[in-house]
Every structure is written in C-alpha cells, then in structure tokens.
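Troubleshooting log. The previous structure file for this entry was overwritten by mistake, so regenerating from the original sequence record. Sequence copied from the archived sheet and checked twice against the printout by T.R.
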Amino acid sequence: MQLSSQVQQALTYIGSIEVNDNINLWEKGRAFYEKFIPLAGEKEAVFKVEDIIIQGEADQIRLRVYRPSGQDNLPVIVYFHGGWFNSGDLETPHCAGCQICPWPLLLLLITGWLPSIPFLPV
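Regenerated output below.
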C-alpha cells in the first residue's frame, strides 16, 4: 500500500522526535506527546481566549475558554481533553479549539491531566 505524501511527512516527523532519556518514563511520554502539537497546524485567530484556574482541594483544574465573539448567552460545548491522564496541557488541543470556535458557541476546554490523581475513578 502506498502512503500519501501527507501521511509520509507525518510519519517522518514522528520518527524524528527526540526526548531526553534522563527523565522518568511518565515525563518522557509526556515530552514525546507534546512534540506532536506542531502536526495540528497553525493556530487560527480567535476573538478571545481566556485561561482560568480553579483551585480544588488537592490540585488545580485548568480551563481554557474560547469566545467566537463578544455576544452573551451562547450555547456551550465542554471538551475534556484526556491526554492519557499523564500528558498534555491546554496547548495540546489548542488548534482544535480554534477550529471549533468560529461556530456560534462558547467552547470550554478542560485538560484531564491531574498530577495528584493520575487515573480518575469512574
């Protein structure tokens, strides 16, 4: 099977990713995962992006709010980015958030990586 040039470029990029071998396995996996961000493309312009931190009992919850306009009372989409529960941050799915934002709704992005709770109970 012949791969398209885009797939071949992505595979070449992934194969060229290097991470520090002198860090623990979790940190190494996170560093590798975060180097995938450029594959998402250029960041698109958004009317307003706001980062919010909510302090919980054991940890902080980081939120990113994308606003397509200054209009009030927009419908809301809440997107939980899992990040394998050990990697990723608000920048990891940022390009996807920017692509959704032109729709007439408010997007609330929540990252799932909580250092004190690596695996959330279901």
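The chain has a mean pLDDT of 76. Archived copy saved in two places this time.
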